[in-house]
Every structure is written in structure tokens, then in C-alpha cells.
Write a structure and sequence with these properties.
The chain has 13 helices and 13 strands. By secondary structure, the chain is of the alpha/beta class. Bound molecules: nicotinamide-adenine-dinucleotide. Nicotinamide-adenine-dinucleotide (NAD) binds next to α2, α4, α5 and α6.
């Protein structure tokens, strides 16, 4: 088991990374004396898979509040239903929320924790790869508004992030891949050795190994390393810039073009990691065109993402429309589009003066029309 500290003065907390440790959560909550009473917020699938395992660890059974599955339920109406549920069960300022699910549940439950009675304690128990390596760490909570994703929210740190890596064994292959895009991102922005480690192990990073008990054990060991290393990198960035005033923006590597593609395709054709994968290749190609980055790094990045089964081409999306979508992206600050561009592995710069013609050339190279 690994324990990674997120050092944020009086808001510091541990990220606990283990394997098959979910039933130990109740004991941790008890020993830390967190919460006079405990409420689990989850979705029906995750509740069926893992709810009992969590509840079993508590002497007094926590009440469970379910939210339907899917991004479209990450909204204020659903948050209000959760407030109703908490109030009905008599949740107080000293109650504890356990968020048990992927990034949607984490963002929503974290937001409810941040706002119910002006803020109550919560623990993130992320169950997807994406939420284990990214969404559960750093205290960004929130819900969507019809006009913009994640528009309403708060920075509100959890008491702990409790990770059981074995939970990812039940993820569909596509959900595992979406998390892998963020894992690759960490290698590019912060850690060249980690990038090399991913290159060396890429052929094991899929759901096949979970099909048989022997290969599953070996695979989960590898995943434990991957989740811990990713969590360390995210924690380090969050520590230096808790409220995304500067450095934390490097976590948006691949997200500028990625968000444009997601919104252009109305969040249907690509999931987040797939769009980020295309966005990372686009950013690397832009960096190479600006002579900031050697082409062999672009090739290595593309080869790694290809091996992991993530998209790296644009498949006939109209380049003009992607560029138009860029300018309505929320990263437009003072009319400028921010790009996080690699200069080499583990070194990125933020540029707000990339000419749109360079962006178009890079997208054309990727099969855009
Ligand atoms: N707060 C942040 O810093 C941050 C960062 C990145 C992403 N996000 C948010 O995260 C969300 C995406 O999260 P996600 O990719 O985890 O998707 P998700 O939460 O929608 O989960 C995907 C699906 O997987 C299912 N699932 C969850 N755990 C499972 C398991 N162990 N086995 C089988 N199925 C399981 C869920 O029921 C869900 O249908 C977005 O809303 C995004 O905005 C937040």
C-alpha cells in the first residue's frame, strides 16, 4: 500500500493506494474519527458491484444515496435531490460523505459536500482509472450548466482519497483507455522515466489481463505502480498551485484541442480521454512546427497512444470547425487560446500566441479536412 501526501497546509490529506483494500475503508474512517454518521453517494452500477464491500466495513451501516449513471446527471437538479436526501436522513455539519464512483460521482458528491451546510467532510473513493489518477485528486468539485461543462463548482479538498486499484478490473476497455490518456499526459508533462515505463509496458495495459485470475494479479501490480506514480505527479502539481492560478494549467496538456473536439462532436463521438489523446498529438505537432520539440518525441507519443488503442488522428473532422470551437473554449483568457506545448519529455511551456494557421497545419497533418 502506498500513501501519498497532498501537502496543502490545513487542507492536507493522504492518497491511499492499495489493492483489494476497499473493505478496510470503514476501519480507517473509524480510527480517524471522521464523521458522526456516514453517507455514501454512488451510482446503481458501482453500488451493485462494490457498495456492500464498503458498507461491510462499517459497524453502523452508512446510508446510501444513488444518482443515475452518466455525465448528464452531473447537474444542479441532481445535487438538489442529494441535499434533500441528506436532509431527510438528518445529515449534519459533522457528517461524512463518501463519494464512491467515477469522476462524475466524485465531482458531484464533492460539490454537494462543499455546499451542504456550508461544507461537510468527504472522502473520494474513485472507481474508474480516470478518477483514480486524476479527478479524485486536487479538490476540483462541480456540476455542469446547460451552457458549459463544469461551470458551477468549488475548490474543496477531501479528507482523504482512498484507492483500491482492483476496482478497475471491472471497467469496460474503453473506460480503461480514457484513463490511460491522462496517465500518458503525466509522463509527457512531468516524468520522462514514467513515459519510458509506459512505453515498455504498453502491451499489458488493457483489459485482457483481467480475464484470468493469474494474469489479473500480475496486471494489478503493474496498475498499482501506474496509479501511484500518476497520483504522485498530480499531487505535486496541485500542491504548487491549488487553485489553478498558473502551474496547474500544465495538466491541460492535450485538453485545448481535446475540448474543442468534444464540444464539436457534442460529447458523443469521443469520450474525454480519446479527445485528449488526439489533443496531445495535436499539441506535440504544433510544438514541433514551432521548432520547440524534436519530431522523434511526437512519433514516440503517437506510437504509445496507438499501442494503447487511443485515437491519434482526426478522422475527417473539419479543421475550420475545430479551430472555431477552440476560440469558445473556456481556456480563452483575454481573447487568447492557451496551448500547453512540450519542449521535450517532462518539460512543457504555456503559449497564448500560437497562430491559428500553425494549428490548422498540425490538424491537417492528422487527417483533418
Ligand atoms: N475534478 C477533476 O479534477 C476532474 C478531472 C478530470 C475529469 N473530471 C470529471 O470526471 C468525469 C469523468 O469521469 P469518469 O471517466 O470516471 O467517468 P464516469 O464517472 O462517468 O464513469 C464512467 C462509467 O463507469 C462506470 N463505473 C465506474 N466505476 C466502475 C467500475 N469499477 N467498474 C465498472 N464500471 C464502473 C460508471 O457507472 C459510469 O457509467 C467528467 O465529468 C469530468 O468532468 C474531473
Amino acid at each position: 500500500m502506498a500513501k501519498i501526501k497532498v501537502e496543502l497546509k490545513d487542507r492536507s490529506y493522504d492518497i491511499i493506494v492499495g489493492c483489494d483494500n476497499l473493505s478496510e475503508l470503514g476501519e480507517l474512517v473509524r480510527s480517524e474519527k471522521w464523521g458522526r454518521d456516514v453517507f455514501i453517494i454512488t451510482d446503481p452500477l458501482v453500488n451493485d458491484l462494490y457498495g456492500d464491500l464498503v458498507r461491510k466495513g462499517f459497524k453502523t451501516k452508512p446510508k446510501t444515496l444513488e444518482v443515475p449513471r452518466g455525465e448528464r446527471f452531473k447537474n444542479l437538479r441532481v445535487a438538489e435531490k442529494l441535499y434533500d436526501g441528506l436532509a431527510r436522513y438528518g445529515a449534519h455539519r459533522d457528517s461524512l460523505i463518501i463519494s464512491l464512483g467515477g469522476g462524475v460521482i466524485g465531482d458531484l458528491a464533492g460539490f454537494v459536500a462543499a455546499t451542504y451546510m456550508r461544507g461537510i467532510d468527504y472522502i473520494q473513493v474513485p472507481t474508474t482509472l480516470l478518477s483514480q489518477v486524476d479527478a479524485s485528486i486536487g479538490g476540483k468539485t462541480g456540476v455542469n450548466h446547460p451552457k458549459c461543462k463544469n461551470m458551477i463548482g468549488a475548490f474543496y479538498q477531501p479528507k482523504a482519497v482512498f484507492i483500491d486499484v482492483s476496482l478497475i478490473a471491472t471497467l469496460p476497455a474503453r473506460e480503461l483507455r480514457t484513463g490511460l490518456a491522462e496517465v500518458v499526459k503525466y509522463g509527457v508533462i512531468e516524468d520522462a522515466d514514467f513515459f519510458k515505463f509506459l512505453e515498455a509496458n504498453a502491451h499489458h495495459l488493457n483489459t485482457k489481463a483481467f480475464e484470468n485470475e493469474d494474469t489479473k494479479r500480475a496486471a494489478l501490480k503493474l496498475w498499482q505502480t501506474i496509479v501511484s506514480e500518476s497520483a504522485k505527479i498530480k499531487a505535486k502539481v496541485v500542491e504548487k498551485d491549488e487553485r489553478e492560478a498558473g502551474l496547474r494549467m500544465i495538466l491541460n496538456f492535450g485538453h485545448t484541442v481535446g475540448h474543442a473536439i468534444e464540444s464539436l462532436t457534442r460529447y458523443r463521438a469521443y469520450n474525454h480521454g480519446e479527445a485528449v489523446s488526439i489533443g496531445m498529438v495535436a499539441a506535440a505537432r504544433i510544438a514541433s512546427r514551432l521548432r520547440l520539440l524534436e519530431t522523434d518525441v511526437v512519433d514516440r507519443l503517437k506510437a504509445l497512444l496507438d499501442k494503447l488503442g487511443l485515437p491519434t488522428e482526426i478522422d475527417s473532422l473539419p479543421v475550420d470547425k475545430i479551430v472555431a470551437a477552440l476560440s469558445i473554449d473556456k481556456k480563452v483568457i483575454g481573447g487568447k487560446v492557451n496551448f500547453v506545448l512540450p519542449e521535450k519529455l517532462a518539460k512543457v511551456v504555456i503559449k497564448d500566441d500560437v497562430s491559428l494557421s500553425v494549428v490548422k497545419q498540425a490538424l491537417n497533418e492528422m487527417g483533418g479536412q
